[in-house]
Amino acid sequence: MNKKVKYIIKLDLIPELKDKEREELKKVTEKFAFRTNNYYNSLINWDDPEDPIRRIVIPTVEELDVWGRLDASNESKYMKAHGLEHKYPDTALLLVTDVCGIYCRFCFRKRLFMNDNDEVARDVSEGLEYIRNHPEINNVLLTGGDPLILATFKLEKTLRALADIPHVRIVRIGSKMLAVNPFRVIDDPSLLDLFEWFNTKTGKKLYLMNHFNHPRELTEDTKRAVELIQRTGTTLTNQTPILRGINDNEDALKELLEELSFMGVPPYYVFQCRPTAGNKTYSTKIEETIDLVESVRAKVSGLAGRVRYVMSHETGKIEVLGKTNDLVFFRYHRAADPKDAGRFMVYRRNPDAHWFDDYEELVDEYKVETQEQFV
Questions:
Q1: Going from the N-terminus, what domains does the chain have, and what CATH number goes with each?
Q2: By CB neighbour count within 10 A (0-12 exposed, 13-18 middle, 19+ buried), where does 169 fall?
Q3: Which tens digit of pLDDT belongs to each residue from 199-240?
């Protein structure tokens, strides 16, 4: 593979697509932004119309199905300064860019890539000032968009500013770059120097929160990029939504979680796909996904199986704990309202549920015989 990765924003530049496909898919790209690159396209088996890597990055006409809303978790509710979200007391999110290496078709922030969106702050000074004035914030997540799409000198300015804020102890970078363009790391020693400086000279810790969705993304080049970042003292983890036609089968999910653990990139969360506009074709049913996650957990080591199955709901991060014949169990892993912290919730099952809001019958009290099922 040529190390010169070229980005592609027009379907006409993908020769593997048939003329009829391009014509149909242009209707999708007129509504939702499209971006890929020649490296990531090389991972696709173009002979398979249901290829999982293709489903990640190439539009499908099903995206036009009316379903969900653009801001499915109402993130704008927690926007406290331009480009900054503050939902949980100790954590702030800085939206530092509205560009990614590729645009995942199931992205829950696809609204950021639309012309009329102004949530991202190219100048993060207002967000940094907010963080300085809120000493309860001890960790900051750089996200967007993909922060590693930024030139290293731009990323450095933000990291140095955060390093100078005493109460910030951790900086996390949310990125899919190692999956879509590992040469961003391999060919830029200055990025590795920046990461090493942050980990060794500031008294703080840098985490890279990766977004590997399928085991075929774990190429030799990607593994090389992972190793280089690990040498800087940066901790790497992974999170992925469960995605229909991509990783919603036991073989793919098991291989993904195991290979990540072998690479020293422990799985962190598996998410329920958010009900974002355009995402119906990627969403799975919660109660079927419970079975999938638990089946895979039973077949992998504790390191690979320590993932939490969660939903990033407007009210907090809700962990999906399990089910019985009649009931399904949830707990607030993180809650926006302190009164919900750790709250345990039991609902009557709804086999058609795709999101927490699809459950309506809350069980307020437990009968002894129900509790005894778990003794």
A1: 7-64 (no CATH), 75-297 (3.20.20.70)
A2: middle
A3: 999 999 999 999 999 999 999 999 999 999 999 999 999 999
